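Schema walk-through. Below, the input block comes first and the output block second. Nothing else is stored per chain. Lengths vary across the set, and this one has 146 residues.
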Amino acid sequence: MSHVAGRAAGRPAPRQAVRVAPGLVPATSGGGRPDLPCYVRSVAAAPPPPPDLAARLDAIAEVGRRTRKATPRWLWLCAGLVGAVCAVGAVITLVAEPAPRAPHAVTRSQTGSGLGTGLAIGVGVGVVIGFVIARQRADHSSRKSP
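--- output ---
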């Protein structure tokens, strides 16, 4: 007899093991099965935080507040100016009439050097920029050597 046929014959479904977080007592419905959602049944409770956790976090935040320099006012003004220029540009773009387009044909280079040349230039420029940025760090290893 199959498992499904046994249920049809009035037998109760087999009990499944249910893990409950420590300290929780599962509520049961009339059939004796826990009424907890599946994620509560299978996940253990997190350990309680240490008693001095709040004090340690407050100390860390206080060190951050003391050591962080305030953002200069000129930087806020520049950011506001850039934001205003961008907002005005977006409004002008949305309101203005589109410019008429002239039909044009796409011409391709006969030498076929566009992709390779572009990748080589990009890699070269990236290496130079990366080197310049790395040289600005005081703790960079190449500055320590004579």
